[in-house]
């Protein structure tokens, strides 16, 4: 069936939601939008289903949410009665339609006799992960598009361990969802029926208190906080999202008393009125925190994205505020954890840190210095969660820290996804640690560079919008595979790791088998130690290019980074 046929099917549907009917009318003469909305259904990526709000099988709306939940419900129907009875925890963020999608999810589950535990108000993604573990539900659903613009919403499924649903189960759920081809025939009970049949239970403060109690164990040096941290001036912004209440609670509980919220960004606003991209990776989101910081003389600025799983920071350096990258934040957090545990005599012999393959090698150097193993995984925090699960099952390692370069960190594994609430309170403690020495977090980063070498990294995303976007992305990846470059910026490639074929080929012809799951990622290792990685995003229509390099000075590292970025762009533009 063509996209026009599918569009007409929606037009002819008598039960269609009135707002979606109006959306169909608006796109009636817009073939491009119509094709984008109806050509293909949304797919599950590294972080679930995410897309633009609106009518269509390729958009986020009550019908596609019902279909995704129907897939989960049919999958749970194949499990034992005891497992199915554990139910599903559901949370949602501040975006348009988030609460409605949460209730629709509960309604579809209820039609299958599956109980849901739904938060009474918006809550962060990491607390949903915690709730799955705390309530011992079989699964969790988080309605969020994380850091995407306001036009988006999304749907993430979590497994029994609180981590994002593993690929094998996720593929089965997707298959069951696709088998529910008639989106308008999927049954969904309303909230009144759910409550009457005891198939939906509100949750809230009971889970909050348990979560806050666990976050209280993240801080390490309480004397330091009492002496320095309580007076240190902090500015915090939840970027219009879910972090406002929990971040305040954990900071206050830890002993940080002198913090201010950015008032304009503390409103749970689905318009994200102060920023088009509510993502702490972008400097623009710090404009208001910096203005407030200058006004009150704040030492540290912290911002979390709308579902509070990512964190960014800026620190006062002289008369300006210096932004830190995700890799720099991860490095100072890791160094502090390892040094503190070493001083306390609690650093385990089998300690391990887990990071994605596109994250900084500075962390590897730090871990090695402390006798700690570094384990690399594919991009997607689900793979870090899988490693934690493996550690606990085998006793092979003790988890010490996990992170991705994209501003996501996990300190303690009572959550199995990146957790900006944990990270907020520990980063504040690390800032207090450096302040006790008359230094800043930025000084801490420079000390690490002086000790381990100057590491520089950059991520560049190239957008591929429109119906042909996926095809163009596939063509670009094919070009890199078939027209294998011998070097970048004159530096020879010594090894190519292709995670799709799961092979690593060295320049001398040696072929090794990669043990990670198959994924459409290429990584080049260069003769000077530089690495370059290329992968299509799992959540956005773009291909991401990563470069990581090292030199003996900051200027040389930046010079190399610029040269490799240019070489990548030159090769890509020939495609």
TrEMBL record:
Gene3D superfamilies: Alpha-D-Glucose-1,6-Bisphosphate, subunit A, domain 3, Alpha-D-phosphohexomutase, C-terminal domain. SUPFAM superfamilies: Phosphoglucomutase, C-terminal domain, Phosphoglucomutase, first 3 domains. It catalyses: alpha-D-glucose 1-phosphate = alpha-D-glucose 6-phosphate. GO terms for molecular function: magnesium ion binding; phosphoglucomutase activity; phosphopentomutase activity. Pathway: Lipid metabolism; Glycolipid metabolism; diglucosyl-diacylglycerol biosynthesis. Residues 42-179, 225-314, 326-452 form the Alpha-D-phosphohexomutase alpha/beta/alpha domain. One of its GO terms (biological process) is purine ribonucleoside salvage. Its EC number is 5.4.2.2. It is an enzyme of class 5 (isomerase). Its cofactor is Mg(2+). Residues 509-560 form the Alpha-D-phosphohexomutase C-terminal domain. Pfam families: PGM_PMM_I, PGM_PMM_II, PGM_PMM_III, PGM_PMM_IV. It comes from the Bacteria. Keywords: Carbohydrate metabolism, Glucose metabolism, Isomerase, Magnesium, Metal-binding, Phosphoprotein. The keyword Isomerase applies. Coiled coil: none annotated. Belongs to the phosphohexose mutase family. This is Phosphoglucomutase.
């Amino acid at each position: 069936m063509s996209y026009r046929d599918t569009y007409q099917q929606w037009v002819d549907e008598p039960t269609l939601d009135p707002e979606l009917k109006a959306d169909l009318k608006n796109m009636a003469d817009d073939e491009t939008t119509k094709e984008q909305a109806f050509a293909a259904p949304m797919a599950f990526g590294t972080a679930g289903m995410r897309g633009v709000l609106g009518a269509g099988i390729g958009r986020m709306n009550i019908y596609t949410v019902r279909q995704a939940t129907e897939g989960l419900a049919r999958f749970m129907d194949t499990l034992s009665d005891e497992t199915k009875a554990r139910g599903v925890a559901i949370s949602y963020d501040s975006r348009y339609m988030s609460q409605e999608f949460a209730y629709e999810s509960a309604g579809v589950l209820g039609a299958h006799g599956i109980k849901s535990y739904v938060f009474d108000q918006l809550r962060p993604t990491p607390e949903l992960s915690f709730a799955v573990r705390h309530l011992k539900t079989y699964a969790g659903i988080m309605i969020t598009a994380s850091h995407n613009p306001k036009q988006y919403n999304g749907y993430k499924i979590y497994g029994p361990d609180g981590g994002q649903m593993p690929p094998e189960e996720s593929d089965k759920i997707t298959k069951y969802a696709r088998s529910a081809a008639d989106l308008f025939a999927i049954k969904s009970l309303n909230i009144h029926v759910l409550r009457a049949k005891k198939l939906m239970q509100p949750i809230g403060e009971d889970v909050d208190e348990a979560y806050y109690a666990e976050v209280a164990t993240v801080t390490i040096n309480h004397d330091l906080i009492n002496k320095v941290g309580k007076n240190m001036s902090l500015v915090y912004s939840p970027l219009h999202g879910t972090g406002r209440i929990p971040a305040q609670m954990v900071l206050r509980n830890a002993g940080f008393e002198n913090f201010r919220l950015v008032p304009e960004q503390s409103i749970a606003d689905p318009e994200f009125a102060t920023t088009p991209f509510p993502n702490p990776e972008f400097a623009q989101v710090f404009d208001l925190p910096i203005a407030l910081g200058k006004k009150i003389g704040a030492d540290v600025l912290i911002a979390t994205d709308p579902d509070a799983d990512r964190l960014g920071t800026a620190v006062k350096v002289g008369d300006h505020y210096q932004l830190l990258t995700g890799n720099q934040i991860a490095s100072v957090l890791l160094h502090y954890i390892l040094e503190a545990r070493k001083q306390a005599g609690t650093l385990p012999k089998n300690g391990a840190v887990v990071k994605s393959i596109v994250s900084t090698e500075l962390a590897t150097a730090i871990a090695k210095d402390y006798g700690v193993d570094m384990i690399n995984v594919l991009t997607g925090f689900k793979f870090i969660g899988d490693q934690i699960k493996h550690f606990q099952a085998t006793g092979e390692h003790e988890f010490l820290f996990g992170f991705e370069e994209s501003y996501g960190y996990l300190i303690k594994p009572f959550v199995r996804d990146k957790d900006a609430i944990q990270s907020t309170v520990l980063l504040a403690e690390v800032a207090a640690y450096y302040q006790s020495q008359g230094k800043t977090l930025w000084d801490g980063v420079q000390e690490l560079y002086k000790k381990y070498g100057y590491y520089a990294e950059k991520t560049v995303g190239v957008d591929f919008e429109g119906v042909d976007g996926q095809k163009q992305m596939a063509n670009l990846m094919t070009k890199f595979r078939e027209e294998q470059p011998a070097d970048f910026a004159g530096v020879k490639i010594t090894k190519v790791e292709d995670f799709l074929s799961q092979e690593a080929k060295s320049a001398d012809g040696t072929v090794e088998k990669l043990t990670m799951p198959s994924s459409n990622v290429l990584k080049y290792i260069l003769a000077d130690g530089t690495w370059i990685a290329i992968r299509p995003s799992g959540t956005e229509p773009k291909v991401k290019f990563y470069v990581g390099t090292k030199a003996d000075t900051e200027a040389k590292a930046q010079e190399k980074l610029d040269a490799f970025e240019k070489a990548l762009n030159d090769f890509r533009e020939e495609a």
